[in-house]
Amino acid sequence: MAANPKDIHEPSYVLRTGAAGATRLHLLHHLFGPISRQMLLEAGIAPGMRVLDLGCGIGTVSCWMASQVGPDGAVVSVDLNADQLAVARTEAEALDVKNTITFLERSASDTGLPSESFDIVFCRFLLCHLVDPLAALKEMHRVLKSGGAIVCQDVDLATTCSLPDSDAVNRSAQVAIEAGKKIGADYRFGRRLHSELLKLGFTSVAPRFDQPVHLSGPEKHFWEYTFSEAAPGIIKAGAINQPEADELCRLLHQVTLDPGTVIAQHGSFSCLAVKP
What we know:
The strands form 2 sheets. The chain has a 7-stranded mixed β-sheet with strand order 3-2-1-4-5-10-7, with helices on both faces. A 3-stranded antiparallel β-sheet has the order 6-9-8. By secondary structure, it is of the alpha/beta class. The protein has a domain at 5-157 and 184-212 and 267-274: Rossmann fold (3-Layer(aba) Sandwich). Helix 1 (22-42) packs parallel to helix 2 (60-69), helix 5 (167-183) crosses helix 7 and helix 7 (222-237) packs antiparallel against helix 8 (242-257). It has 8 helices and 10 strands. It has helices at residues 22-42, 60-69, 82-94, 133-143, 167-183, 193-199, 222-237, 242-257; strands at residues 50-54, 74-79, 101-105, 118-124, 144-156, 161-163, 203-210, 213-214, 262-264, 267-274. It starts with 21 loop residues before the first helix and ends with a strand.
């Protein structure tokens, strides 16, 4: 049986949740959703399957998965944050897939779900926020059927950059990584993903790297929005003080508005793998 969510320590998540974070999360899905969909299709998602979205957030991928498995399939969507799940349920209802999805408020490392009960397990930008990401990976291995596929996307914040080079972009990524270390999160976990999957015994591990790059448009603001949301948590962790954070936010906005500067958002290290 899964532990009561009230008894579980919150993951090291410094970003806004629920309706307050929905705008940034929709933009994130716009940037990285095509990768998620492509990898899930490569994993063989199909009508009638039972699939798990771990750390589902506001449910954007869960809803797409529901459209793929259809009424004869099932999506189980797990998140520890009740505010995220509230938005996810609203999204599922709006897209008329709520009957296909079961939302559960549980820990990623203690879902309480039956062993070997899913055809595909998916997570995106979850492991980097967890104090014990390996426990979550072990849980994914446990609930996945033999022959089933795991699809994981995760980040390396150190890949965030601009062209021409910007001290503000470089510094903001650096202090975010430092804050992560202080609170037990690894915002470069993506670089370790393939190795950890191999250690757990997954086979056919297929890694890839993707990095959205923009010269203009709303997508160009993604890192600026992300850092602005994370700034209170970064300050609380002691990686930076309030005046420094305010100045970095101002400079990031200035750089992002520069029509001659390219912003390369953080890269996504992803893996598709199979449980023997």
